[in-house]
Every structure is written in C-alpha cells, then in structure tokens.
Amino acid sequence: MKRGCGFAARPDLPAGAQMSKLEVFEPAMCCPTGLCGVNVNPVLVQFNADLQWLTGHDVDVVRHGLGHDAAAFAANPDVVREMQTGIDRLPIVMADGKIISIGAYPSRTQLIQKIGLKIPAAEKPHIRAGACGCKPGEC
C-alpha cells in the first residue's frame, strides 16, 4: 500500500487535478493488514487485493489500524465522532476526506463508484448476476 501524506498529480488528469486518497481506519488486528495467523478472514484477503488494485490505478491508499496507528484515529474528528457510538463502527473508509463506508469493507465496485474512478470497460470488474456468475440469458 502506498503510504503518503497527501495528493500527487496524475499524468492522465488535467493540470491542477489531484489523485484520490483513500484512508481506511480498521479495528485492532494481529498485523496492519489482518492477513496473518491461521484463520485469515477472506473478506480481508479480498479487500487487501482491492486496495492493491486501487494503488495500481493511482489511488493513494493509507491504512490505519487501531492497534498500530491510534494517533491517526484521534487526529481525525469524523472518525472520533463515529467511534463515540462504538467500536463496531469500524472499519471506517474515507475517500478524499469524506466517509464513504462505516462498519463494513466495501467491494471493489463500491470503491470505484465512491471514488469516481473512470475505468476502461476492459478492466471493469465482472458483476455476477446469476448463481453461476453469468448475466441473465448468457448461460
């Protein structure tokens, strides 16, 4: 994951435009990504892959774990406000300083939509419509 302190210019954006920044505030885990130990949560595996994919599309991704980076939680008034109602509000995902998800890890498709990424059709994730994964009438 990229660990940056701000925005950087993207060559594919107009002059003066900025890349998106995604911040993830997560509960305390055994390691910063939660991908450790014997029983790894498959949701975390997928979310980690989605974050890596976003970094490949020039999104600045920063993860803050409650057990590893508590100061980042305290420094963000929106996160502090959400945490006052309970730890179950985590994870909190912010895009460009605005909360886009509370209490669950968003999917890649949701992240793309919330960030407003323009992804070429060839790269868009396949959305399963039926039990087999095909679109209706394509089986």
From TrEMBL:
Superkingdom in the source lineage: Bacteria
Xref: InterPro entries: Arsenical-R_ArsD
Example of a GO biological process term: response to arsenic-containing substance
Gene Ontology molecular function, alphabetical: DNA binding
Pfam families, A to Z: ArsD (PF06953)
Protein name as annotated: Arsenical resistance operon trans-acting repressor ArsD
